[in-house]
Amino acid sequence: MSNKAGIIPGDALEGWARWHPGELFPIAPEAEPAPEALAEPIDGHDVAAERLEDDAEPPESSEPIAPPPAYPTAAELEAIHQEAWQGGYDAGHTEGLALGREEGREAAHAEAASQFDTAFAPLSELGQRFEGELVRVETELAPSLLKLAFELASELSRVTVAANPDSLRNLLAEALADWREELARARVRVHPDDLATVRAFLEAEAPATVWQWQEDAALERGGCVIDTRTVSLDLSMETRRAVLAAALGLGDA
Fold first, then answer.
1. Residue 14 class from Cβ within 10 Å (0-12 exposed, 13-18 middle, 19+ buried)?
2. Is residue 158 a contact partner of residue 237, using CB atoms and an 8 Å limit?
3. Which InterPro entries does the record match to this protein (predicted)?
C-alpha cells in the first residue's frame, strides 16, 4: 500500500514527544506553606458542640414581648414642665417664708433686748445704789446690833443660871481640873443664893481642901471668886462677860 502524499507514518518517526501548551510559558510551581503557618488542629468535640448548638432550636420564651416605649407628646412634656416649675416655686416660697419668719424673730428679739436694756438701766443703777447704802448701814449698825445681841444674851444667861444650878457646877468642875493642886486652902466668895450649891459640890469634889465660905450679894448668881495664897480664880459672871465683850470688840459692854 502506498502512503498518502505528505503523511509520515508514526512508526517511521523517532525521538519525538507530545507537545503541551504550557511549554511555551512555563508556570512556576506554588510554594508550600511553612509549617508555622498551618492552621491549628480543630478539636472534634468543639466542632460537634458548635453543630449541636446550631442545630438546636431556640426555646420559646413564656414572657410576653414588651411593647416599644411610648414617648411623651408635646402636651405631656409641657405638663411635666409646668409641674416641675410649680413644685420649685412652691418649695422656694415655703423656704423663703420660713427664712423670713426666722429673721423676723431674731430682729424682734434683738429689738426687745435693746428696749429691755434701756428700761432696765435705771433700775440697775438704783439697785447698785441700794446695795451701797445697805453696806454702809450694815457697817454703821453692826457694832450696835452686836452689842444689843450681847446684852440680850447676858440677860438670858442670868435667867438660865438662876433656874439651872448645874451650870455653876460645870464651871467649878473646870476650875478644879486646872487648879486642884493649888487648892490646899481656899476662900470662896459667892452669892448667898448659890452658897449651898457651891459648898456641897466643892466639899464633895475636893474634901482635902480647907474651905472658907463668904457670902457676897454684890456678885451675880452663877459665878464665884476663889482666892488662895498663890492664885485668885475670878469666875464671876461680870468678869466672864467683860472678857467676852472684849473678844467681840464691844469694849465696856
1. exposed
2. yes
3. Flag_FliH, Flagellar_FliH/T3SS_HrpE, T3SS_Stator/FliH
Whether residue 184 is contained in a domain is answered as yes
Asked if residue 68 belongs to a domain, the reply is no
Task: Read off the pLDDT of residues 29-76 as tens digits, 9 standing for 90 and up.
Answer: 555 555 544 445 545 545 555 555 555 555 555 666 766 666 778 788
Write out the residue range of the structural domain in which residue 115 sits: 89-163
Q: What is the CATH number of the domain that holds 233?
A: 3.30.2320.30
- 127 lies in the same domain as 149: yes
Asked whether the beta carbons of 225 and 188 are under 8 A apart, the reply is yes
Measured CA to CA, the distance from residue 75 to residue 96 in angstroms comes to 31
List the one residue out of 174, 176, 252 whose CA is nearest residue 208.
Answer: 176
Question: Residue 9 falls within a domain, yes or no?
Answer: no
What CA–CA distance (Å, rounded) separates 162 from 170?
A: 14
The angle, 0 to 180 degrees and rounded to 10, between the axes of the packed helices 166-179 and 195-205 is: 40
Answer with the one of 148, 163, 178 that is the final residue of a domain.
Answer: 163
Cα–Cα distance list, 82 to 37, 70, 73, 85, 91 (Å): 69, 21, 14, 5, 14
**What's the angle, vertex CA 129, arms to CA 127 and CA 135, rounded to 5?**
105
| Residue 78 belongs to a domain | no
Q: How many domains does the chain fold into?
A: 2
Cβ pair 168, 175 in contact under 8 A:
no
Structure pTM?
0.41
